[in-house]
Design goal:
Length: 727
C-alpha cells in the first residue's frame, strides 16, 4: 500500500504522531503525519492497525516498525519491532524490540531497548521508560561508545549501572551505582555519576584528567573543572598537585561579545624550586571590531620569574610581549596606534636596562600623483621607548648603551615610483624617497639632547623578464612555464644632520625580499648610505602538474665601503656576499625554503633551510640554521642548529610523534621529545616523553612525562577515530 496522508486529529507515535480517522471538527490538517505501510486495517471505531514495513514521518522524524496498533479508547500505542526511531537531526536514535506507549509518547515502556546519542554513545537496557515526555529511564544498563561485535561482545571500556536517566532538556545523563570496566574487568565503582550527553557542547563538570611527571616537580595530576557562565562566557579551573608538595591552580576564562572575543590563561603556584613564595603567569588576548573599520587587539604575556614557564611546561618563550593596538587597514591607507611592554626571561638580560615600554603611532597613505604619474606614499610615524633605569651611563652589560636611555622620534617620509615599458619588453622604474626625523634623547650622558636628521635615496631599476611556455602535443602550450628575470638597480642615498645612536637596526637580514630595496635596515635609526648597485636574476618554473620552483641569485656592489654592516649580515665590504635562495612548492605537500650567503671563496656566512612535508601517513617539518659569530648582533659564538618535528601514522588508530633539536656548536642536543597517540571510535590516549637539555642559572635540564585519556562520547572535545577492529 502506498503513502497515506491521514487528515484529522494527530495521534503521537514514539515522539512522532500517528493519525486516526476522526470527525472533521477535531482536525488540524497542517499537523498531519505521513504513514507508509504494506497494510492498514481499522477494526471497530477505535483501533487502527498498520503492519508490514511500517514507517511514520513527521516533522523530520522517522519511525520504523513491523506493526503499530493504536487504541483510541485508551490512547495507547502497541508497537512490535524491530523498532527504530530517529529524531530530526539524527542526534538521538532509539532501537527496541517492543513498546507500549501513550499516543503522545509522554509515558510508556520499551523492552530490550538501546539508546544511541550523537552516533557515539550507546546505552543498552533491559527496559526503557519514557517519563513526562522529557526523561528516558533505563534499568540494568551497559553504556559505551566502543563498537561491539558478535564475535567479541566485550567493549574496550564500559559503564554498567543499575539505573540510568537521560534528561533530554538539560542533556544530562545520571548513573546510579555505576561500575567502570576495561575489557570486562571492573576498575572502580561510583555510587552516583552525572555526565553530559554527547550532544551538549558546554556542560559544567570535570574534564579529562592529565598525569604529568617531571624531574623537578615529581608526579602530578591535573583535574580541570569546566564552569559555563551563560551562553557567552566560561571558566575552567584546574588544580595541579604533585608528589614534591607543589600546588598549582590553573585558570582559563573565555568570553564572546557581539563585536569580539577575549581569552585569559594563567596559573599560580607554590613550590620549593625557588625562594619565591608564589609563582605564576598570565597570558591573555582579545580582538574587537570598532566603528569606521577600526580594530582593537590586545595581548598580555607576563611571568613571575625567568624559569616558571619552562618548569611547568606552559611555554618555551624567552621574551614576553604585551601590547594593545588600535588599527585600521583600507585599500590606500593604514593607521595604527600601539603600546608595547616587553619582559625578558633570559638570564643575561636586565629588564631595567632594556627598552621595556614602547609607544608607536603610524599613518601611511598611498596615492596617485596625477600629471607626474606613478604612485606616491606618505608615512608619518612617532616612536617612544622607555627604560626603568635612570642611570645615564653604560653599566657592566656588553650592549654599549646607556642604562637609562629613553628615546622619542617623529618621522615624516614621502616616496614615489613610476614604471615604463621600453622597447624589447624592458621595464624601467624610477623610484625615490625622502625622510625627516626629529629625535629627543634623555638620560644619556653622551647622546642626551634633541637632534634632527634628514636622508634621501633615489634610483633607477631595470627588469627584463623572459618567458617561455613549454609546448604540448599538437602545438598546445600545456607544458611548464619558465620565467627568467634579470634585475639591476642603481641607487644613490645620503644622510644629513646629527649622528643618532642605533637601537632598532642592529640585526640586519639579507634575503630575496630586500635584495632590490632602497635600504635594508629594519628600523629608522640607521640609514644605508652611498652609491650602490643591486644586481640579481630570478628564475621561476610553473609546472602544470602542480609544483613550482623559484631560484634567486644576487649581490650588492658599492662605490665604497661605508662600514655600516657587521660580518654576519653578509652586506659588509664594497661587495656583499652572494645571496642564493630557493623556493619549492609541491602540490603533494612538499614546501621548502632555503637561502645561503657566501663570499667569493665560497665561505658561508649564513645559511638557513626550512622544509615541510605532509601526507596521510607521514609528516616532517624542520629547520637548519648556520650563522657565523658577530658581537654586533650579540652573538659571540657561531650558531649551528637543527630542529625536527615528525609524525607517523603507524596504523589508522595510532600515530607516533618525535621532535628534537641539536646544537652542532656545543655538540649536544637541546631538546628531544616523543609521543604516541592512540585513537579509535571510543577512546583517545596521548602519551608523551620529552627532555630539555639546556641549563642556566635559573633553569636546569628537565625530563617531562605526560599521559591523558579521553573517553570519546563522554564530554570529550576529540572526535572519534577509525573504528578499527571490533571490541
Amino acid at each position: 500500500m502506498g503513502p497515506v496522508t491521514l487528515p484529522g486529529r494527530i495521534l503521537r507515535i514514539l515522539a512522532l504522531c500517528a493519525a486516526l480517522l476522526a470527525p472533521a471538527g477535531g482536525l488540524r490538517a497542517q499537523e498531519s503525519a505521513t504513514l507508509v505501510s504494506d497494510r492498514i486495517e481499522v477494526t471497530g471505531d477505535s483501533r487502527l492497525i498498520a503492519s508490514g514495513k511500517v514507517e511514520v514521518l513527521y516533522k523530520g522524524t522517522r519511525l520504523s516498525a513491523s506493526r503499530i496498533t493504536y487504541d483510541r479508547a485508551t490512547e495507547r500505542l502497541e508497537i512490535e519491532g524491530p523498532i527504530t526511531l530517529v529524531e530530526a537531526g539524527g542526534d538521538s536514535v532509539i532501537l527496541a524490540s517492543a513498546a507500549d506507549l501513550r499516543s503522545d509518547l509522554s509515558e510508556g515502556i520499551l523492552t530490550s531497548a538501546r539508546l544511541v546519542l550523537n552516533q557515539q554513545l550507546q546505552m543498552a537496557a533491559s527496559r526503557l521508560a519514557r517519563v513526562e515526555g522529557r526523561y528516558t529511564a533505563m534499568d540494568r544498563v551497559v553504556a559505551s561508545s566502543c563498537r561491539v561485535c558478535a564475535a567479541s561482545p566485550t567493549p574496550l571500556w564500559e559503564i554498567r549501572a543499575t539505573r540510568v536517566v537521560h534528561d533530554e532538556v538539560a542533556r544530562q545523563i545520571y548513573f546510579d551505582h555505576a561500575q567502570f570496566r576495561i575489557s570486562g574487568v571492573p576498575v572502580f565503582y561510583i555510587p552516583r555519576l552525572r555526565m553530559p550527553d554527547p550532544t551538549l557542547d558546554r556542560a559544567q563538570g570535570f574534564l579529562p584528567a592529565r598525569l604529568r611527571t617531571t624531574s623537578d616537580l615529581g608526579t602530578g595530576l591535573k583535574i580541570p573543572y569546566f564552569i559555563p557562565l551563560g551562553a557567552s562566557r566560561d571558566l575552567t579551573l584546574a588544580p595541579y598537585l604533585t608528589t614534591t608538595g607543589a600546588t598549582t591552580l590553573e585558570m582559563r576564562y573565555r568570553q564572546a561579545f557581539r563585536t569580539g572575543t577575549i581569552e585569559f590563561n594563567g596559573a599560580i603556584s607554590r613550590d620549593n624550586l625557588t625562594d619565591d613564595s608564589l609563582r605564576g603567569y598570565l597570558f591573555g588576548r582579545g580582538a574587537f571590531d570598532l566603528p569606521d573599520d577600526y580594530r582593537l587587539t590586545f595581548g598580555i604575556q607576563a611571568a613571575s620569574d625567568n624559569a616558571y614557564l619552562l618548569d611547568y611546561g606552559y611555554s618555551d618563550l624567552d621574551r614576553l610581549d604585551s601590547r594593545a593596538e588600535i588599527s585600521r587597514v583600507r585599500r590606500n591607507g593604514f593607521l595604527s596606534a600601539r603600546l608595547v611592554a616587553f619582559q625578558s626571561l633570559r638570564d643575561e638580560d636586565d629588564n631595567d636596562t632594556l627598552p621595556s615600554l614602547v609607544a608607536d603611532v603610524t599613518f601611511h597613505r598611498r596615492f596617485s600623483l596625477g600629471p607626474l604619474g606613478g604612485e606616491g606614499g606618505l608615512r608619518i610615524q612617532t616612536h617612544n621607548h622607555y627604560r626603568t633605569s635612570d642611570d645615564p651611563l653604560d653599566g657592566p652589560d656588553p650592549d654599549t648603551i646607556a642604562d637609562g636611555r629613553d628615546m622619542g622620534r617623529v618621522s615624516a617620509r614621502i616616496d614615489w615610483r613610476r614604471s615604463l615599458i621600453l622597447p624589447g619588453g624592458i621595464e624601467a622604474t624610477a623610484l625615490g624617497e625622502a625622510q625627516l626625523d626629529a629625535y629627543s634623547i634623555r638620560q644619556d650622558a653622551i647622546y642626551g639632547g634633541n637632534y634632527g636628521r634628514g636622508h634621501a635615496a633615489a634610483g633607477i631599476e631595470l627588469r627584463w623578464p623572459w618567458v617561455r611556455a613549454g609546448g604540448g602535443s599538437g602545438g598546445a602550450t600545456t607544458g611548464a612555464t619558465h620565467v627568467i628575470e634579470p634585475v639591476a638597480q642603481l641607487i644613490w642615498a645620503n644622510r644629513h644632520g646629527d649622528a643618532i645612536p642605533d637601537e632598532d637596526s642592529t640585526l640586519v637580514e639579507f634575503d630575496e625580499g630586500n635584495l632590490f630595496s632602497l635600504g635594508r635596515f629594519p628600523g629608522a635609526d640607521a640609514v644605508e648610505e652611498g652609491y650602490r648597485a643591486n644586481l640579481g636574476v630570478t628564475w621561476t618554473r610553473f609546472d602544470p602538474e602542480g609544483w613550482n620552483l623559484g631560484l634567486t641569485l644576487g649581490r650588492v656592489m658599492r662605490a665604497r665601503d661605508e662600514g655600516q654592516f657587521g660580518p654576519a649580515s653578509g652586506l659588509g665590504g664594497r661587495s656583499s656576499d652572494w645571496l642564493a635562495a630557493v623556493n619549492l612548492d609541491w602540490e603533494s605537500g612538499v614546501q621548502t625554503t632555503g637561502r645561503v650567503l657566501f663570499d667569493n671563496d665560497f665561505e658561508i656566512t649564513k645559511a638557513e633551510l626550512r622544509f615541510d612535508f605532509v601526507d596521510e601517513i607521514f609528516s616532517l617539518s624542520g629547520s637548519a640554521l648556520w650563522v657565523i659569530a658577530d658581537p654586533a648582533e650579540n652573538r659571540p659564538d657561531p650558531t649551528r642548529e637543527l630542529r625536527l618535528d615528525t609524525g607517523w601514522q603507524v596504523t589508522p588508530a595510532m600515530k607516533a610523534k618525535f621532535r628534537g633539536s641539536y646544537d652542532f656548536e656545543s655538540h649536544r642536543g637541546t631538546l628531544a621529545g616523543m609521543g604516541v597517540e592512540f585513537r579509535n571510535d571510543c577512546v583517545s590516549v596521548d602519551l608523551s616523553l620529552s627532555r630539555r637539555f639546556t641549563s642556566s642559572t635559573s633553569v636546569s635540564p628537565t625530563t617531562d612525562f605526560g599521559l591523558s585519556v579521553d573517553l570519546i562520547g563522554f564530554g570529550s572535545s576529540k572526535a572519534a577515530g577509525p573504528t578499527g577492529r571490533c571490541f
